[in-house]
Specification:
Elements: H1 2-6, H2 9-35, H3 40-47, E1 50-55, E2 58-63, H4 64-89, H5 96-120, H6 138-147, H7 154-178, H8 185-203, H9 210-226, H10 232-238, H11 249-264, H12 278-294, H13 297-321, H14 328-333, H15 337-363, H16 375-384, H17 389-399, H18 403-432
Antiparallel strand pairs: 1-2
Helix pairs in contact: 2-6, 2-13, 4-7, 4-10, 4-13, 5-7, 5-15, 6-7, 6-18, 8-9, 9-10, 11-12, 15-16, 15-18, 16-18, 17-18
């Protein structure tokens, strides 16, 4: 029990991501098998199962897979938003000196893959997939590092985590700006009103969840009708959630001590005395409210939702998104310019971009490499970052409307991610095997 209490937020974050990557892999294998088995019709019918709500005389329906991608994935992006805010306010992105290395590395790891993809797809509908090889799947990337155990320097884990979070931020911006169709200004105005209501609830420290839930749903619905992908609502809401304690810990300790002293003076303190003694009830209620104030809601939600995200949302997304039917039409065009652009973008562009821009940060004097981290480690991490998967698949479905093109893109993502994970692991193993034990 003591060991669990001593684990840091980073430890819990890494554990949930690495464990979740196993579940994500299992879901992906099931999806591929299911979509290419004799039960493939059932898989497609289940994906398109119509689920809706009736409001007045109007019915709003979406397929099951659509609900997962527009609904549950909003929670995934909400957690991404919380991670981004935590790192910017409190973590590795909170100061220029600490932030510049992972920021530049992430930028390089997005720009170079996009350029490589463009070189393969300079015109036609395939050009829309340029954002696919930009993404890094943090769950699989952290999972690969976890396989290496304690020989991985802690600074390298932090670097990869910060890089992946910046990568997520770039992916969110790319989705919001470049993978958006017609924008409805009235819907955005309504979304802004709901965001304002959410902000007011936060500012007034509203205690009832309903004051947050109603505006959050309003933001999601408004963003969905605005033409911007609904998942962006999750990030916008997350940026308004506090990640700092409302009260200082020293003040908290002093107030707790005073309240416990008052409690001891209210008479007999027994298992049932609170039900009969109003003073005890009031004191304990005050302690309860102070506990809520000292634990930042952003940190609490991130910690709680990581398990939901890793073990429920992402596996469901993989189950209904990774099921590519490998038929004669796809095999006839493979390897296509789309799949080649994605494979070379993730497998070559990612490590080259991350290594090059990290080198620029170092030689320019803007930043130093983390303690115990060598250039071989950066190359290994850069290769591991070529595991695109979740957001790469997500962008594949936003960028293309043709099922054949989506299938080609997903196969490219699968192959690139498998190769990047394997090669990255080998590079890391080679560079770490002879170095002293580090944590």
């Amino acid at each position: 029990m003591k060991r669990i209490l001593k684990r840091t937020l980073l430890d819990r974050f890494l554990h949930s991501q690495s464990s979740g990557s196993i579940v994500l892999m299992i879901a992906t294998i099931i999806a591929l098998f299911w979509a290419n088995s004799r039960w493939s019709d059932f898989y497609r019918n289940l994906s398109h199962l119509s689920i809706g709500v009736v409001i007045g005389e109007k019915t709003y329906r979406m397929g099951l897979a659509h609900w997962i991608k527009d609904g549950l994935m909003t929670i995934f992006f909400f957690v991404v938003g919380l991670e981004i805010k935590r790192e910017v306010v409190l973590g590795e992105l909170s100061s220029f000196r600490k932030a510049i290395l992972p920021i530049l590395a992430a930028v390089g790891g997005c720009i170079v893959p996009a350029i490589i993809y463009y070189l393969f797809n300079r015109n036609g509908p395939s050009m829309a997939g340029w954002g696919i090889p930009m993404a890094t799947d943090i769950a699989f990337a952290i999972g690969i590092l976890a396989l290496l155990g304690d020989i991985v320097p802690s600074g390298l884990k932090i670097f990869l985590t910060a890089l992946a979070i910046v990568d997520d931020l770039i992916a969110v911006l790319v989705i919001a700006i470049f993978y958006t169709s017609n924008i409805s200004i009235p819907s955005l105005i309504v979304a802004g009103v709901f965001l304002l209501l959410f902000f007011i609830a936060v500012a007034l420290n509203a205690r009832r969840p309903i004051f947050y839930l109603v505006p959050a749903i309003g933001v999601w619905v408004s963003i969905m009708f605005s033409g911007i992908h609904a998942t962006i609502a999750g990030v916008l809401i997350a940026l308004l959630v506090p990640v700092k304690s409302k009260i200082d810990l020293r003040s908290f300790f002093d107030e707790i001590h005073n309240n416990l002293k008052k409690l001891s003076q209210t008479g007999p303190v027994t298992k049932n005395s609170i039900a009969l003694n109003k003073d005890q009830w009031n004191i304990l209620e005050e302690i309860h409210l102070m506990l809520e104030d000292v634990i930042p809601p952003g940190i609490h939600l991130e910690n709680y939702l990581h398990s939901v995200q890793a073990f429920v949302i992402l596996p469901l997304f993989a189950l209904f998104s990774a099921g590519v039917t490998i038929n004669e039409a796809i095999l006839a065009t493979f390897p296509s310019s789309i799949s080649l652009g994605i494979i070379f973008g993730l497998l070559v562009g990612k490590p080259v971009g991350i290594l090059l821009f990290s080198w620029i940060a170092k030689v320019s004097g803007l930043s130093d490499l983390p303690e115990g981290v060598k250039w071989g480690h950066i190359l290994g991490v850069g290769t591991i970052a070529g595991i695109g998967f979740t957001i790469s698949i997500f962008i594949s479905e936003l960028g293309f409307s043709n099922d054949l093109l989506i299938g080609e893109a997903k196969i490219g993502v699968f192959i690139a991610s498998l190769l990047a994970g394997t090669i990255g692991y080998v590079i890391m193993r080679k560079t770490l095997v002879n170095q002293p034990h580090m944590t």
